[in-house]
Amino acid sequence: MAGTRGTIVVILDLQRLSETPVSDDPFEHLIVPGFLAKADVDNINADYPMLGKPGSFPVSAAPSGPGFKAVLDELRSTAFASVLETKFHVDLAGKPTMATVRDRCRRQDGKIHRDSGGKLVTVLVYLNASWNADGGRLRLLRDAENIDNYATEVPPEAGTLRAFPCTENAWHGHKPFEGQRRTIQFNWVRSRRYLIREQLRHRLSSAIKLKFA
Fold first, then answer.
1. Sign of dihedral through CA atoms 166, 23, 111, 183?
2. Which of 30, 51, 127, 212 is most buried per CB count within 10 Å?
């Protein structure tokens, strides 16, 4: 049962996801507040990898508990993939998946970027309490130059999901923020070769960050 310790089942709200319309301004995306219930967010945060450092890390970078592992299992499920396949008209069957986590944010993080062409779909799940800061709110941008030229802004509040296909115009970023900003990033990628390369890159990067950051 969600919200209990021991054997934990996290309930992704696939119905809410299915009922949320896809926006195409400035590019195709979904924003789903309440995708995770508060009790599930509490379980995930209780078992979140204790990184304590900024940067993006593979989920294997630090030990985690059953609440965190439960949400990863559900993000990897065919039921979740099936909803996003329908929403974005993309074939995810048999595609490799990759998960990374963030715990803390530096002021230099959040620069305007688009995700690698090796990725098919990006999913972000936020795990922070109510967000009052001006910075750290992800902006979906109309160009690659101006952080203020945005169509929508997403506060990284607990249980919110944001998903989008990794297209050439999927520019995003956020204004500077320093402090805790917990995010799970989950991707379907185009090939196992790309996955292996990214896993090696993340492992090397995380080892350096954990040692010197």
1. negative
2. 127
Q: How many CB atoms lie within 10 A of CB 7?
A: 8
Q: How many CA atoms lie within 13 A of 183 on its CB side?
A: 25
Q: What is the DSSP letter of 108?
A: T
Query: What's the mean per-residue pLDDT of the chain?
Result: 91
Distance of alpha carbon 166 from the chain centroid: 13
Q: CA 136 to CA 181: how far, in whole Å?
A: 8
Q: Tens digit of pLDDT for each residue in 86-112?
A: 999 999 999 999 999 999 999 999 999
User: Is this model's pTM higher than 0.70 or not?
Assistant: yes
CA distance 154 to 33: 10
